[in-house]
Each structure stands twice: as C-alpha cells, then as structure tokens.
Amino acid sequence: MKVAIVPGDGIGREVVPVAEGVLRYIRPEWDYYPVEVGYGRWERCGAAIGAEEIRALSEADAILFGAVTTPPDPDYLSVLLQIRHDLDLYANVRPVRGPGVDLIIVRENTEGLYSGIEWSLPGSACTLRVVTERGSRRIARFAAGLVKGGHLTIGTKANVIKSDVLFRRCVIEEAEAAGVAWEEKYIDALCLDVLMHPARYGVIVTTNIFGDILSDAAGYLVGGLGMLPSANIGDKHAFFEPVHGSAPDIAGRGIANPVAAIRSAALLLAHFGYADEAVAVDAAVNAALAAGVRTPDLGGAASTVQVGEAVIGRIREWM
Ligand code: NAI
Ligand code: MG
After folding, report:
1. Active site residues
2. Å from CA of 226 to ligand 1 middle
3. Whose CA is nearest to atom 38 of ligand 1?
4. Which residues form the Isopropylmalate dehydrogenase-like domain (predicted)?
C-alpha cells in the first residue's frame, strides 16, 4: 500500500502526524510519503497545489489528509474542490458515532453548489448548482449499499429547488432498485430532527452543501468537530480526513484534538479490509477518552501528542 500523508495547514500539521503514527504502528510495512499542499504552498509559490502534487496523490492507494486554510480570496482556488474533482471522489462519508448515535451522512461530493462554476458581475455573483442524473444515481447506489437493515433517509429541498427534484427522484429509484427502505425529509427540518432524535437515523444521503452543513451540526452529538472523521471515496481513489478545518484560532499550541484524524485513519483501515484493526483503533480512542485523556475542547488538559500516545498505548496492550 502506498499512503500519501498530507498535513496541509494549521492544526492539520499537528493532528496528521499523530494519526500517521497510529497507522504506522499498525501497518509499519506500508509505504508512507509526504505531499505538501495548502495555503503555505500558495504563499511560497502562488498555488496551493500543483500538477506534481496531483500526480503524487493519484499514485497513492490511500490519502491521509489534515486540513487546508482557504482564505475568502476570489483568486484562491480551493485545494479540496480540486482534489475531489480530479480524483473523482464522489462520495463523502461522514460517520457520527457516540452514545445514542450511530449514523452515517453520505454527501455527494463533486457537484451541487460546489460545482465550481461561478462568476461575478458588478453588483452580483452567481454560483451554479449542478445536479446530474449520473451523479445522483451513483451517490444513491453508494448510500443504499451502506444501509444494513434500517432505512435510507433522503435530505433535500425538493419542495423549493428544481435540481433537488431530480436528485430526489434518482435516489428513490436507486433505493427501490436496491430493495432498501427509504424516507425523505427537507434538509432544514432534518438538521433539527437529527439533533433531537439521533437514534432514529442510520444512513442519510444528501447533496454537497447540505451534507457539509448537516455533518458539522451533527458534531454536536458527539463532542464537537474534533471528533468527526470522514472518507472521500471514488471508484479509483480513497481519501481520509477529519471533518474539521485548519483551526487557526488554536493552531501551533499543541492542543488540537487528534481524535477526528485518528478515526479517519481507522476508516482508511476499514476501507482496505482491515476491519479488526479499525475496530481496535476506535476502541483505543474510546478507552483513552474514557480514562480522561482529553484535549481542552473536551474539557481535558491533554495535548495532541499525549492523546496519540494514549491511543497507541492501548493498541499495544491489545495486539
Ligand atoms: P474549523 O473546523 O477549522 O474550526 C472551527 C472551530 O472548531 C474552531 O474554533 C476550532 O478551534 C475548533 N476545532 C476544529 N477542529 C478542532 C480540533 N481538532 N480540536 C479542537 N478544536 C477544533 O473551521 P473554520 O474556523 O470555519 O475554518 C478555519 C479554516 O479551515 C478556514 O480557512 C477554512 O476554509 C478551512 N477549512 C478547511 C477544511 C478542510 O480542509 N477540510 C474544512 C473546513 C474549513
Ligand atoms: Mg465543512
């Protein structure tokens, strides 16, 4: 296995080494290599990512990513949008797991309001929301494939937005073809209901920006952004990253919560068939947290590195 390690900016540079340490402990024989992208690269050479980095990422079997800083500058092209597009990482899978909650948000990752098709005129700016039948059907099939016994929840604004009428129809047809029970909710009501009644939900499928917002909000259920991992899956590539960003407000202080990044490494292991190892990593994280080894966002006093050491310590005891 070739694993590209991409810390990015801010706390990405603090949490990714910890998650990499966990992966290396479990699979020391894999080939790990660093790739530098992000704001730091942009400041140095005027581009956040270059053709060479895209090639290095596309040659990897798996990518472990941190976060990148994206300034609200019209000349700055989002690294993540470019990577998701170039590697065709169409499924963004965001599990939210904790006491009383075990759900997966599946977000369409290549189109919708993040199509990248936008323009500015004096006094107005437009962003095109693109929904295609191909994109909707493939994310629907992916999400339906994750439903185990329960049902699929479809989040849209099909009552108001025409592009969601197409999305909704495609998802329903694919769910029925897969023999998966489904329900639908409008995304605004869904955001509230997921927070009020999380146990009612299993797999939720939605379009790009709605999934982005819903998954950050669902972080409330499990202790905040520092806890949420994600996987970006395409037919040829797989990319794993915490849901959170580069957190400039706490970067450089060694106090970022590495759990989201470590759990992203667990998703990587699970994706490539190392299910027992993935379970061991998640269990080690839970044991470390239960023992009080927590960063300040969780009310503790541990550092990023101390959490990583506690997690590896537990894995060492079990393996
Ligand atoms: P953010 O996720 O970086 O931070 C939001 C809040 O959560 C901050 O108060 C931060 O301190 C806290 N937080 C986030 N992760 C944490 C962790 N692991 N441990 C403890 N506290 C944590 O989102 P924000 O502030 O909106 O964006 C900051 C920068 O990150 C921006 O430039 C933004 O564009 C970028 N960003 C990048 C993402 C990515 O690379 N996937 C995703 C979201 C934002
Ligand atoms: Mg987000």
Report:
1. 114, 157, 188, 212, 216
2. 9
3. 245
4. 2-311
Nearest residue to 228 (alpha-carbon basis) of 237, 236, 219, 220: 219
Domains in the chain: ranges and CATH: 1-89+234-319 (3.40.718.10), 94-226 (3.40.718.10)
pLDDT at 319 over 80: no
Q: What is the pLDDT of residues 198-236, one digit of tens each?
A: 999 999 999 999 999 999 999 999 999 999 999 999 999
List of long-range contacts for 43-48, beta carbons under 8 Å, 24+ apart = 47/77, 48/76, 48/77, 48/79
Q: What lines the ligand 1 site, CB under 6 Å?
A: 11, 15, 67-70, 80, 225-226, 241, 244-250, 256-257, 260, 297
Number of H helices, E strands in the chain: 11, 12
Cβ neighbours of residue 260 closer than 8 Å, sequence gap 6 or more: 15, 225, 226, 227, 228, 229, 242, 243, 244
Check: complex ipTM more than 0.90: yes
pTM: 0.94
Q: How many CB atoms lie within 10 A of CB 175?
A: 22
Q: Return the structure tokens found at 74.
A: 């019209």
Which residue minimizes the CA distance to atom 4 of ligand 1?
247
